[in-house]
Amino acid sequence: MDQPCCQMCERPLDEWFLRILIEDRGGCREQALICANCGVRLRLSSEKLRGLQIDPWVHEAVARVLKGKDPDKS
Q1: Which bin fits 11, alpha (ψ -120 to 50), beta or left (φ > 0)?
Q2: Is 16 exposed, middle or buried (0-12, 13-18, 19+ CB in 10 A)?
Q3: Sign of dihedral through CA atoms 28, 19, 43, 57?
């Protein structure tokens, strides 16, 4: 099995720091694993700018879920 990678920096993960799951009521979902370095960057940017800097993955995952496209069921 392939080693999981951080969704933001795409480096291989030994262990993940954050798991982001976006799911609709119908069961369509997208999941991302985030490494500790990227998790800290998200935290620092949210404190500095007073608004969470959302990675493009989140926008794409929400769009896929809203369209009803579930990669787990492909």
Answers
A1: beta
A2: middle
A3: negative
